[in-house]
Amino acid sequence: MPSHKPRGGSTPKPAKKCGCWFTTLSVLVLAFALLTPIYLYLDARLEQFYIFSPPQLHDLSLRAIGAHGNDTRAVVSYIVGELSEKLPGGYVNLDEEWIFNNAGGAMGAMYIIHASITEYLIIFGTAIGTEGHTGRHTADDYFHILAGTQLAYTPGSYEPEVYPQGSVHHLRRGTVKQYKMDEACFALEYARGWIPPMLGFGYADTFTSTLDFPTLWRTTWVTGREMISNLLRGKL
Ligand SMILES: *[C@@H]1O[C@H](CO)[C@@H](O)[C@H](O)[C@H]1NC(C)=O
Q: Which bin fits 104, alpha (ψ -120 to 50), beta or left (φ > 0)?
């Protein structure tokens, strides 16, 4: 079949290159100029997007430990049960989908109770202990110890910070520590701030160390499902 396409040589070429890099740069500058005020506006109002609060979660953790002591499985059910009663409508994931997590050299497992753009709430821990770097995050992190003890270290100090069962380790946005759980330790971890930038820290060890892609996929699936379903119900 004969081709009716014009031959390559017959198409007129543009006189000169359009300076596309300049266009791209303009778009980037414009995007930056538009997004910065939106970011600053939202960042100053993050408080109004939160559905959990540190005093409420600390109180709940203490009551759960008071009711079930070292039966950590029951402590977790108590916490999740009460949260889902107080926050109906799917904000709380009742399905205990435990997933390994390697980050900052530490290894443990997590159960994602809630994940949205500005908050996450998980049970994080390990039955055999671990140690690593906390990561430098764009959110405040409240680690409510449900079982065991967590140690933390900041350069310049000669003594460990000790967080026993029932205490809260608050890692401020932007700060870092070394942390360790000598043996079994589980915590209700609550982060509030900007959550998506934290995911890089949660993923990096997969690429540099574990190459455990099924876990990476499961983490992405559960986190994405929770974040998107929360967005759809208007929860940033
Ligand atoms: C849990 O076990 C530890 C270690 O045996 C003990 O010190 C602690 O008091 C127990 N906590 C509760 C709430 O029973």
A: left
